[in-house]
Amino acid sequence: MRYFLRRLGHAFLMLIGVSLLSFFFTTLAPGNYLDEMRLDPQIAPETLAALRAQYQLDQPLPVRYVSWLNSLIHGKMGFSFAYNSPVAPLLMVRARNTLLLTIIATLFAWGLALPLGVWSAEHLGRLPDRLLSWGTAVGLVLPDLALALGLLLLAVKTGWLPPGGMVSVDFESFSLLHKLGDLLQHMILPVAALVLSSLPLLVRHVRAAVADVLGAPFLVAAKGHGIPKRRLLYHYALRAAANPLISLFGFSVGTLLSGSLLVEVVMSWPGLGPFLLEAILARDLYVVIGGVLLSTLFLLGGNFLADVFLYWADPRIRKENGAG
Amino acid sequence: MQPLLNVENLVKRYDGKRLVALQDELSALDGVSFSLFPATTLAVVGESGSGKSTLALCLACLEPPTAGCIWLEGKNLVALGEAERRKVRPQIQLIFQDPANSLNPRWNVLEILTEPLRLQGKFNSEGIERRASCLLEQVGLSMHIATRSPAELSGGQRQRLAIARALAPGPKLLILDEALSALDCSVQAQIANLLMELQTSLGMTYLFITHDLAMGVHIADEIAVMHQGRIVELGPAEKIVTSPHHEMTRQLLAATPSIAQATRLAREP
Amino acid sequence: MGLEMTALLAVQDLHVSYRSRGGIAFQALTGVSFQLMPGEILGVLGESGSGKSTLAASLLRLLPEHGQITKGSVLFEGKDILQAGSVELQGIRGSRISLIFQEPSLALHPTMRAGEQVRQVLAAHESLPKRVLKEKTRQVLATVFPEEEGRISHSYPHQLSGGQRQRVLIAQSIACGPSLIIADEPTASLDPTTQMEILGVFQSLREKLDLAMIFITHNPALLAGFADRVLVLYGGRIVEVGAAATVLASPQHPYTKALFRSVPRPLERPRNGEKVKLPAIPGDSLPSSLPSEGCPFEPRCADRMDLCRKREPELIRIGGTQAVSCFKFES
After folding, report:
1. I need a surface site. Which of A107, B232, C82, C263 has the fewest CB within 10 A?
2. How far apart are CA C184 and CA A224, in angstroms?
3. Gap between the Cα atoms of B78 and B90, Å rounded
4. Contact call for B257 and C191, based on CB within 8 A
5. Would you state the pLDDT for residue C1?
6. Does the pLDDT value for residue A156 go beyond 90?
7. Angle, CA of A31, A37 and A40, to the nearest 5°
């Protein structure tokens, strides 16, 4: 238990650090939302001054940080200039959409990477393994953007799949089942893009980790005990190879998340990606900070999940940490 | 004659926070004292967990003892400063069970052997080469194998190489931690003979740590039987065999499968 | 012969070779033949490079990928293991013939509880309801840990001592009631007292379960009072075989003799404190130092003759049970 508390403590400190850095960097960047207004001759300087005061842009940085923290505690995460509303509710809707995409992509990516990697390791150096290695090599050099655009092009040309968005225009009029189907249909393209972009790396790591343990004496011993091959590969080998893969899992959540920001922009998925991009361009300060913070939170969540898995998978780690 | 090494009431305690991997091998020392005279061999015999490997690490200055003194020719190694200790350290060399782990697999025999000579800075490159070939000869190897990697050597050759490397800095004391245990019987005999020869020709002093009482008795002048971090019996090798006092010694003797007993047993079915 | 009718295991003319990267084959076993009766303990004595571990692995076809059985047959309970299909083989492994590997700390899965590792073996060979499986696992573990079965069952390998790990391996190997256990240096990494303890476990199991056993070791002293017969391997060939009592008491092959002499005898040490050298065998048994022709032991042999370099001696029967492959005994 102490192990997890310590990990949570680390994560909390990390969040504070990220919030500080992102706050100062975004505020120190030249220009702000009001600068654009200033160019508009129709807005009176008094109005601008009033807005500056309202948004506390006339206050020194530490004061603004503290008052932002205060609003964070009250669940508002500051104020969006562009939407004229607290940031938190705006972010949450988008975050939900992004999480939906990332979680499903993570599940699919690992669900494919594990059997493919094990299969490849089992046939190490033989034709199937070499073909797969070629495939993953191609996948690795292909830029994510090209992959996403290629898939989009495919969807547009064939018309099989909706080329963007999260739901159809007349979504609200559908029955529940129809709604679900519509959502799934819209998800196929972005999920495919995400899975395909992360799969090659995962397959290679699974292959390497499993191949590493396949020659281990305890596996030969298990084979000598007549343990069936499937059990040998998935129960014995994968379990022994779990540690590096679990660490990779935490990392893969991060890459999938950042990948999804890009894919969302390309495929106009209403998640954090397009929202943050828009906010950055408009210098909508608190939205950017909130987005960065939220992404960090997701990343830390992924790593924490990996820690939990690791703790569960390897008794030696439990021992090392005194088991609470 | 003055003892080369004098260990007084050596204590080593480990608190709970040891790395897992080491927990099996390292156990505490609880007041160990003995003297070792030049050109003699003391065999430290005991089971795993008796503290014999911890003793080796403490004597080789690889683990700081919790209390006690280690006198090497009148200098207390425990009290020495880091700079002083670094000067004394080459005089005590440690040889492990499996030299494959302590020899750099990417280097060839010559590189392994010349590295400690280079570190000394006493020789020029020609002198180093000459000294290396001399060392190889001393341990019964020839320059033929100079370009081989450790993986290309047999277990016996590797252990000979490890001895040669340990001899390079001109040590006074060799600590052999289960140095023969991983070898085949016939090779064990070869290396044991080599150690005896080096003792005669170079006046080498050995601390021979082993769980093999038979080999310990064969090679050593004195035997120290360790149990739970203490020396429970210490005496001349032949006495330990013929009249053991401590229960642990008797247990070890009983568990030592000897070929002599084996043939006797076999004769009376 | 009547002997062959009842043999549990009959190995005939076994040849095994390893391919190295350069494609050059290295002959690890050459023409090994022997038989094992039900309930018999055969001690296989050999040093590194003798092919003893290769023998253990090839009997169950567990050789590494670059190893290949090139010739011979392994008849077990009347079936040739070398011809068996993969399903049949899987059914024999761990069920009829069990293998105990050298290093107990490496032969157990590092992140699986001891109890589960035993249960997996049972589950691999018998489809039993969960409850029965659990009970059977408990019983099997209890035969080697009469007192602390429960605690051991829930422990991970790193929480066990070397002797306990070895007992878990033994539990795995006897779980399905095999008729043959092949143990490859099962006590080499253990303390002497633990070593004796494990030998005792083997001894009692043999009496209880009527097991035949192939006990592979480099230490001749372990075999006394334990093995029924002894087979000595050198350079992949059988150099001497016979009843344990005869071979251990009066070895005939120059290698066996020299090997026994090179083991220290603490009781025979002179009382005056003088140290004597051991009669060591010169050279080593590395594959690269074996001669390409003639008797494999010839370069290290004290009794070598001209003939020894020219051709290989065959196994010659001397006396009732003993056989030696040396020209000294050819008449």
Report:
1. A107
2. 13
3. 15
4. no
5. 44
6. no
7. 130
**Residues 6+ positions from B166 with CB-CB distance below 8 Å:** B93, B94, B95, B174
Rounded to 5 degrees, what are φ and ψ at B38?
Answer: -60, 145
**Closest to C113 (Cα-Cα) out of A124, A314, A223:** A314
Amino acid at B235: G
Average pLDDT over residues A163-188: 84
- C106 touches B at CB < 8 Å: no
Nearest to B235 by CA among B253, B250, B256, B220: B220
Q: Collect all residues of chain B within an 8 Å Cβ-Cβ radius of residue C278.
A: 189, 192-193, 218
CB < 8 Å to B19, chain A = 320
Instruction: Give the A window 240-279 contacts with C, CB below 8 Å.
Output: 240, 242
State whether residue A312 sits within 8 Å of chain C by CB: no
Whose tokens are 């100079």? That residue is B146
Structure tokens at B187: 């090779």
Using the 8-state DSSP alphabet, how is residue A29 labeled?
Answer: S
A86 and A73 Cβ atoms separated by less than 8 Å: no
User: To 5 degrees, how large is the angle CA C15–CA C19–CA C22?
Assistant: 145
Domain ranges of chain A: 2-87, 88-323
Q: Taking 60 as the threshold, does the pLDDT of residue A138 lie above it?
A: yes
Residue C306, burial from CB neighbour count under 10 angstroms (0-12, 13-18, 19+): exposed
Is the pLDDT reported for residue A322 higher than 50?
Answer: no
Q: What is the pLDDT of residues B221-260, one digit of tens each?
A: 999 999 989 999 999 988 888 889 999 999 888 888 766 6
Please give the angle made by the CA atoms of A278, A284 and A289, to the nearest 5 degrees. Answer: 100
**Cβ atoms C97, C60 nearer than 8 A:** yes
Interface of C with A in 157-176 (CB under 8 A): 158-159, 169, 172-173
Q: Which CATH architecture has domain A88-323?
A: Orthogonal Bundle (1.10)
CATH class of B5-98+172-267: alpha beta
Do C192 and B256 form a contact (C-beta atoms < 8 A)? Answer: yes
Distance between CA atoms of C316 and C325, rounded to whole angstroms? 6
Please give the backbone phi and psi of residue C73, each rounded to the nearest 5 degrees, phi first: -145, 150
Smallest CA-to-CA distance from C161 within A322, B51, B48 is with B48
**Residue-by-residue DSSP string for C50-85:** SSHHHHHHHHTT---TTEEEEEEEEEETTEEGGG--
Structure tokens at A261: 């920001």
Angle between helices B109-120 and B155-167 (to 10 degrees): 10
pLDDT of residue A3: 77
Instruction: Indicate whether B261 pLDDT > 80.
Output: no
For residue A108, give how far its alpha carbon lies from the nearest alpha carbon of chain C (Å): 26
In the chain, the amino acid numbered A36 is: E
Q: How far is CA B3 from CA B11, C170, C310, in A?
A: 21, 48, 56
Cβ count within 10 A of residue C315: 17
Give the gap in angstroms from C-alpha A155 to the nearest C-alpha of chain C: 46
Contact A291, A117 (CB under 8 A): no
Confidence at C285, pLDDT banded by 50, 70, 90 = confident
* Subunits in contact with chain A (3 or more CB pairs closer than 8 Å): B, C
pTM of the predicted model as reported, rounded to 2 decimal places: 0.84
Please provide the DSSP assignment of chain B as one string: ---SEEEEEEEE---S---HHHHTT---EEEEEEEE-TT-EEEEE--TTSSHHHHHHHHTTSS--SEEEEEETTEETTT--HHHHHHHGGGEEEE-S-HHHHS-TTS-HHHHHHHHHHHHT-S-HHHHHHHHHHHHHHTT--GGGTT--GGGS-HHHHHHHHHHHHHTT--SEEEEESTTTTS-HHHHHHHHHHHHHHHHHH--EEEEEES-HHHHHHH-SEEEEEETTEEEEEEEHHHHHHS--SHHHHHHHHH---HHHHHHHHH--
Q: Is the ipTM of this complex over 0.90?
A: no
Residues C54, C67 contacting (CB under 8 angstroms): yes
